[in-house]
Structure formats: C-alpha cells, structure tokens
Amino acid sequence: MPVPEPADPGTTREWPGASNALGSEPSAYLRQHAHNPVHWRPFGDEAFAFAAARDVPVFLSIGYAACHWCHVMAHESFEDQDTADYLNARFVAIKVDREERPDVDSIYMAATQAISGEGGWPMSVFLTPEGLAFHAGTYFPPTARPGRPSFRQVLEAVHEAWLERRDAVEQNARMLAVGMANAQLSSAVFLDRPLESLDKSLLSEAVRLLARSEDPDGGFGGAPKFPPSAVLEFLIRHAAVPSDTSDAARDMAGRTLAAMARSALCDQLDGGFARYSVTADWSVPHFEKMLYDNAQLLRAYVHWVRLQGDWVLPAGEAASVASRVADWMLDSLGVDNPAAPDGLASSLDADTVLDGAHHEGASYLWTPAALDAVLGPGDGAAVARMMNVGPSGTVSELGSALHPGRQLSGAELTLWNRVRPVLRAARSARPQPARDDKVVAGWNGLAIAALAEAGAILDRPELVTAAESLAEYLVRVHWRAAADAPAKAGAGVLVRVSHDGAARGITGLLEDYAFCAEGFLALYAVTGRRRWYGLAEELIRGACARFVVDGRLSDSVGESAQVFNAQGQHAGLDPFDNAAPSGAAAFAGVLLSYAAYSGSHEHRAMASNILSLLPPVAGRAPRVAGWLLATAQAAAAGPVEAAVSGPPGQQQWELHRALLASPSPGMVVAVQLEMVGDAAADDGAPSGDRAAEPEVPLLESRPPAGDGSPQVYLCRGMVCDLPVGSVEELVQRLDAMTEAAG
After folding, report:
1. Nearest to 644 by CA among 735, 721, 714, 734
2. Residue 185 pLDDT
3. What is the model's pLDDT at position 472?
4. DSSP 8-state class, residue 335
5. What confidence score (pLDDT) does residue 176 get?
6. Crossing angle of helices 461-473 and 510-527, rounded to 10°
7. Are 511 and 574 a contacting pair, CB within 8 Å?
8. d(Cα 485, Cα 481) in Å, to the nearest integer?
9. CA-to-CA distance for 308 and 661, rounded, in angstroms?
10. Cβ–Cβ < 8 Å for 375, 384
C-alpha cells in the first residue's frame, strides 16, 4: 500500500489509514491498548517503513499485561486525547509485549540503561526508522516531578531534536549501536572451540561472594527484592555436595526459602508467589503473579525437600508451599481444564479493577474489620495479629497482605488451617485480577519440569499427568516437526506464543528451545516414556541448527531487522539471568543432560564451552549467573548417569523413586516403565507407536540381574560401577559418588 506524503510536522492532521491497529493482536497487553487514541502499531517492518516514509522517529513503548505502572502510564498519557494527538502527528507509535518479544525487550532495555542509567517497565524508547535507539527512559508522568520530566516535555524535546539536530541524533544512535555490538562480541560463545575445563573453586568462591550480599531478612540486596530463583537452584545443588562452603550454601538457600514462604510475597490463601517485594523484608508485594516465577520457585522448594533435612526451613513446610504453588499454577493459569490444561497462561495482573479504576492488589488486601466480618471478632482478631493486619494498611488504604513473617506455632497453624478455606472462599467472591491468556512455550517448558518433579517428590501423580498434558499441548500447537517445517538441517521449529489454541508470531528463541527440552527430559526421567526423550532430542537438534551460526551461539536469529540494526548488526547473546534463566545457561544445562543420556562428547563439549562464560562472572556478579553456576555444579558432579534395567514392577518402582529422590546435582535417570508392545501399558499410544519411539543410549546393553530382577547402573563421566539391586545399596553408592564429586 503506498504511504502518503508526510504532513507538516507542526500540524495534527490525521494520516489516511492511520488508526490503532492492536485490536486483533494475540497479546493481552497489546489488546489492553487497542482503544487508546494513540495510533499504536505492532512491532514489525510495516510500522518502521511507515516511519521512514513520514520521516519521523518511532516511539517504542514496551511493557506487559500484569505491569502496574504500565497501566498507570496508559491511563495518564495514552488515554489522554491531547497527548495522543501530539504523539500521532510527530511519531509512529509502536507497542511491544516484552513477554511476546523478549528479543526486542532485551536489546532496547540495554539501550535504555545505557542512555538513562535506569531500566524497567513501562519502557519508553525513541528510535530512528532503522531501529536505532537515541533517547530512552521508563515511566514518565503527565506532569513534571523533581528529577523526572513530564511525558509531554519528553515528546517535545525529542521532536525538537529530530528537527533541529538530526545529524547529531543519528550519529549518537549509530555510536550506541556500535557499543551494543562490542558488548555482544565480548560475551560471544563459540561452540566449535576446544573443550574448556571447569575450575571447581569458582563454585565455592561464588558462594562466598553471595554470602557478602545476603540480607538478614532473606534474599540478596535491598528493596525492591526479587526472588533469586536461579541462584537458589545453584545453592541447593552446591549444598548437596560436601565442601567447605556447602553448609553456607544450604543455610543461605534455606533462609531465603523460609523468608519468602512466610512473607507477603507468597499468597498465604491461594498459593503462588508475586513478582517481587517493594520492601526488603518481603512484607509489601508487587502483586502480579508470573508463570515463570512460580515454575522456578516450585522446583526450588521441591529440590529443597529433596535435600532431606529440616535445616532453617522444615521439609514438611517446604512441601506444603510447593503443593500450594503447583495447585495455584494449574487452577489459576491452566487454560480450559486445570487438571489437563491446554497450556498455562502467562500471568495474573497486579491490579484489580474496582468501579472502573485500577487498584494494585485490591483482591488480596484485608483490614481487621474485613477479617472480623468473615470470621467473627474472635478468630478475626487472632488472624489479624498472626498475619500482620493492622488498622493502617501496609499496602494502601484498602488494607494489608496476609503474612506471618515467621514460622507459625502449632496452635497458630491449627487455627490457620481451619480459617484458610473460609477466607479463601470470601476472597474468591471479590473482583479478581485479569489473566493474560497467551501461552509462552518456554515458560510452559519450565512448568513441565517443575510439575513432573513435584509429582514424583511430593507423591502427587496428578501433577505428572498435568505436566504430560502441557507437553502434549506444546507438541500439538507449538512444534513443527522437521517434515512440516522449512528449517535448516531437517530440524523442527518451535513457535514461541499461542493464543486460543493457535500458534502465532515469531519462532521460539533459544530460551524457548532450552526450557522445553529441559521440561521434556525431566518428564522422561519421571515417566520413562521414551517419546519425551525423543522430543527433547529433536528440540536440541533444532536449537543447534537455528542458533549456532559459524560455531557461534545466539539468543535469536533473524527475527527482526530493526533489532539486528540496534545491536550493531551482530547476533546477540545475553549470558545473564533475568526473571528466568538466560537462554545460554539453560541450553548448557540441557546439552549437559543430553550428553549424559546419549554419550555424545560433542554435546558435552558444547555445554563446557558455554560454561566458559562463567569465570569472569562468578568472581564479580554471581547473582546474575545462577543458572550457569547451577549447570557448572552439575558438570562438576558428573553429572551422575543412572540407568534402571529390568522389568516393571514394585522393585523397579522403588529403585526409580530412590533415584528421583536423590539431590545429586543434575543427575539423569533413564528407565523404561512399560514393556514395548505390552498391551497393558496405558500410555495412550498404540504398541506399534511405542516400539517406534527412539532408544535411549544410556539404557542400551544394561541387562537385568541374573535372576531377571531390576538393577541400577550408576555411571559418572561415562565410567560405570557394578550394578546394584537394592534401594539401601543404591543410596549408599549415590552418597559415595556425591562425596567424591566434592
């Protein structure tokens, strides 16, 4: 379609065909802005071509559906007609859901931090029509405040600079892109280089550095305080291997897990964790609830239970927290059917709409009077004291979030277990926060791993069933097998997002492939269904074909010319964890596990070369390298390779469960729980299909005992001990192998 001639920059004349174009987008966040008077467009070539034809800059606004301050800026500025008129006349406005396009979010967040020294959402970035950033910030208020100009002032200053100092603007944008390129090159990983060796002393040094930044209230650093999920995984793995820092790692992990479990960050009624705490003592949460946070924290609490001790946080309390998180994920985020969901939705909003206005956390807040009204004066007053609900609301005038902030006594726990269902029912009758129903492949992969392991460790098989349902949805909707996908090297393609049961938008990023492969491998270890191992293998093959170019690993490939320009025309790789583990770190973990299953020296070398990112980071900033450290801990431990041979039955089941209960870092478990061709094997697939499933190399040439009974082969570094046939001997052997890894 031809683009009309540009209007005079001083007018507000409407462009022919210009309008808000977000109404049909799959993203709930974009649809939230579909009725703004701003003429929003989705991120893409068409929007940037429109800006080039008009010779105006792009205003890029990035946020997500559950973001409270995104709603605030939308109401103050994007719903204001005068602001919209000014913006429409002088800019092309683009809206991005950071959860749908993390590649866009990542590069422009780096640019925003470089330009303004701060980062966060809503993110407000001004770009050339080629996608180069030249000015940026986060939230801008409607009127100026000390140290922060109004949004209108920012628009006017950018417009004036574009007209009067265009050469300088474009030169600065190009210089920033060059700086971004240099940053990308400094963290490049070449997977075809010789194998890098791992210095295990880095792991202990990282524990010591983490101890220096530990907060007495649990966690690291000050407010705002986020759950350090990836770091917790490292600390729990490190605690499982005897060393001079294992006790310190165990205690740090336990203090943080205990503090979060007893805090307002954890929904004491319904389960699930909020995104972060506004206060250092975890008492005032920012109420949005994200799938990626809860999937990671579910796994962390389950792995704490697996340590089999009651240090700091009793295992029973941790198991209770984990069960409630799993139930919340399925009940609140499960699409269509919580017991067998068609994917898990992305998030619940921070805000609740009351009388047409957004109120942060309104669904979750209580006053003493509200407790009295539901429970009666006696129980209401007792719960108010126990759960820190006073006459002055700690969050807003609407009240306080329920939280004990300490371990409950026996009598208090009895009272709480009695009144919790009553309070939960009363709260469910209130207006509820909105849900972002988009299904993100990678985050569902994280959930699959967490639910599968939770089902096994907590003895809740229905959670494993739910994990398999999620996996089936990803295969059915998000995965394009090699025969159906135009991909390199005959590899399949994963689509990142789906909505209403249909995949839409960009292909998956490295993190999507890695998280899904991790989920499928965890599901195989628990269920013994070779299909999940085979699908993980296909995902790894697809990731290698897509994200390894000339031996170099990248987070994304060719999704956007504008992103490519903004990062200096170099493919980017961010090795640092953010809200979820970095794609590179997660891929290293998957490659390490796959090498243990398959015996592939090539994939083991690839994992080791990604871990070469660790030395300069572990000694300076271990808090942003938790998953790299966790993967390195698994590599240092072997990881142990366990193959269960022999026929299904009670003995095989007991051996398998003992392996799944072991805290050995990164251990891989291979088992076949049904006989090929056995008509009684109720896995929903014809026996012929089961026979066609891929073999798992770790199980090959592993015969049962001489009397035909099951036994376990334990290997480390592809060197195996003699097999064992009893649970007692198996546990002793595992303990000895773990000690040897220290």
Report:
1. 714
2. 61
3. 97
4. S
5. 87
6. 140
7. no
8. 6
9. 9
10. no
